[in-house]
Specification:
Helix content of chain A: 25-40%
Strand content of chain B: 5-15%
CATH superfamily of the largest domain in chain A: Nucleic acid-binding proteins
CATH class of the largest domain in chain A: Mainly Beta
Order of helices and strands of chain A: HEEEEEEEHH
Distance between the termini of chain A: 73 Å
Radius of gyration of chain A: 22 Å
Keywords (chain A): Cell membrane, Cytochrome c-type biogenesis, Heme, Iron, Membrane, Metal-binding, Signal-anchor, Transmembrane, Transmembrane helix
Strand order of the largest sheet of chain A: 2-4-5-7-6
Strand content of chain A: 25-35%
Oligomer: heterodimer
Family (chain A): Belongs to the CcmE/CycJ family.
Pfam families (chain A): CcmE (PF03100)
Shape of chain B: globular
Shape of chain A: elongated
Largest sheet of chain B: 5 strands, antiparallel
Largest interface: A-B, 43 and 54 residues
GO molecular function, one term (chain A): metal ion binding
GO biological process, one term (chain A): protein-heme linkage
Number of domains of chain A: 2
Structural class of chain B: alpha+beta
Number of strands of chain B: 10
Amino acid sequence: MTRKQKRLSIIAAGAGFLIAATGLTFYALGQKASYFYMPADLQTATLEPGQRIRLGGLVEKGTIIRGQGTQVSFGVTDKENSVKVTYTGILPDLFREDQGVITEGTFGADGVFVADSVLAKHDENYMPKEVADSLKAKGVWQDEQAGGGS
Amino acid sequence: MVETGHFALVLAFALALVQSLVPLFGARTGNERLMAVGGPVAVTGFALTALSFAALTMAYVQSDFSVANVWENSHSLKPMLFKITGTWGNHEGSMLLWVLILTFFGALVAVFGTNLPNTLRANVLAVQGWIGAAFFLFILATSNPFARLVPAPIEGRDLNPILQDIGLAIHPPLLYLGYVGFSVCFSFAVAALIEGKIDAAWARWVRPWTLAAWLFLTGGIAMGSYWAYYELGWGGFWFWDPVENASFMPWLAGTALLHSAIVMEKRSALKIWTLLLAILTFSLSLLGTFLVRSGVLTSVHAFATDPSRGVFILCILMLFIGGSLALFALRAGSLTTGGMFQPVSREGALVLNNLFLTTAAATVLIGTLYPLVIEAITGDKISVGAPFFNLTFGSLMVPLLMLVPFGPLLAWKRGDIFGAAQRLMFAFGGALLAVLVTMLAVEGETVFAALGIGLAFWLILGALTDIVLKSGFGNVSARVMLSRFVGLPRSVFGTTLAHLGVGLSVLGIVGVVSFETEKILTMRAGETVELSGHTVRFEGLHPFQGPNYTEDQGRFVLLGASGNSTGEIISAKRFYPARRMPTTEAGIKTMGFSQLYISLGDETTDGAVVVRMWWKPMVTLIWLGGLVMMIAGAISLTDRRLRVGAPARRAKPARPSPATS
């Protein structure tokens, strides 16, 4: 091979590698990214059975039920609709009524959302950005939720 | 004192402006005296920034709540260590630490760069000055840590309890030394572009600076990972959180830079690529700064956000990344290119390493920014989490790690792949043995886990093979071998240890991901639970009063075979009244390289407590591997070649130094 051919073949191999990596990346994005929904969005959304999503909103007042075991159930609301969520494990330290929360998991056959992770940020003013944006869009945002804190 | 600090900061900004312009102008016009201004100005700028930082620290130590920043982030009852570390436990203070480290590196270049060609030194200091000026302006305009409060409050609002930990003393300084350390490589790269030639000095200088920044960044990331692991109470060591990714991308690019710099130094090839990597690595560091501080992404780490700050950093980001890449596009064509080499050679292996590492950095970048792009285009909110990164990053890392042991065994210019494979027979056999032992010893579906363990052993044994062979194993007597071993260049030890460290981390990750066991249950005082052969008895909850918190301590006793106590684990729920914020203090017991990890949940209605318990086999190896990599970097940095390798004042033509093997 001449010097030029050699250089070209190296560039071709490198380009092939990059194309393969790009393909893999976008395939993975299509498969593995999970969409974020508020309870009201679920009316119009079409979810495949078993599809993983993120469900966000406020923890509905008076709905937290701690049983005798390790399972907890609570309602996630956007002040219009609400969804019942069950979770097994330890809730984050900042999980409270009327606070923003993001849960991730799948819907069971009975319409109850089974979460395998519950996020509440480690900050007393926590409102996940997605939740705050959606609440603002719905006009139920109150400013004291955003700032201040203690 | 506070006003002195504020004034010193303003002066430091003014000096940074001088440093950005005067040496640059001197270098353009060939004026030696103007060029010589850079050094003293850089050192003075560092002294002023240090004074400013000391003033802020002093305000924290004295709990001077007339300073808004201190009021927001401190409390008079806080232990002294956390008063001091609290200085950088917030946005404003941490930016001050950022510029302190930046000016520190600038001063180092000024002090140790006396044997650099004058124009190069002047240009490098000028570029450092630009970065400094931009960030000083950012601090003074949007995030002034010295702003006063009138009237002064009596008590502060306390530091976020999560940050009241020894981790805050170590993690951010190490991380910033890493992030900001890459600014030196960036400044050298931009200076080379301004001059329009890649000086031999650049090739010699870029590696030690990359090495220094890389070893600090490695330590910072490892420490951050361990901190999150024990502090958050979730038992995870890596969450693929945007902010973690923000520190991981410069690490990947920096690791690539470290390897390409070797090729440039030894073979004076890959010059332009190395230059581009140096720019990209620091650009990713800046991007990380932007992501952490602008609040554009949801993350567990984000600082309190303010849109004006985000826009300001975005402007800095575009100016520096856009400007340096535009300069690169203009000038790269006119730079002299290096020599060619065979694909199968040490250079070839290092190119392959770069291809994998930069692609991996790119996939992490895409995964991190994709939600932003999608939201901007379609308005959909999505999240890209661990499943994405495990698939893409994992499939890039596995082949790279399989190839790692070959690299150091290949000769420069033209390597012998079969010869290298032959010499790796022992390592391969050891790895195969590890796979078989794992499959036989552990029940269940363990093929992938066993292969993972095998990969880790392949890396560790492969690294050791390299250094054993370089000592002359098989050819010379044991005594000669020992003396050869001692006489090997430090960089060979560095390579071996760094690759060994990667192997250890892989071993820890595979171990904990594959063989971790977990139980979530409710317990009452006196009840016992068994997990992976360890019996633990719950002794009940006991209240405890800390200096600025109260806690409920759950006491657990580890029982031996005969029912005797072999150790205590305390896991607690803390409450910090100043911020009305609860935290979970995980109880961790280290046994060998493994850990028993206990997290407390809420009390149930019938008086029992929810307990989450993990057995994490080999988990500490993840961070020990990081520590080994850090030590490897430090050893490599003491290599004689790097200490005396700086060029003479009269630039000599680039001459590749002989290969070490």
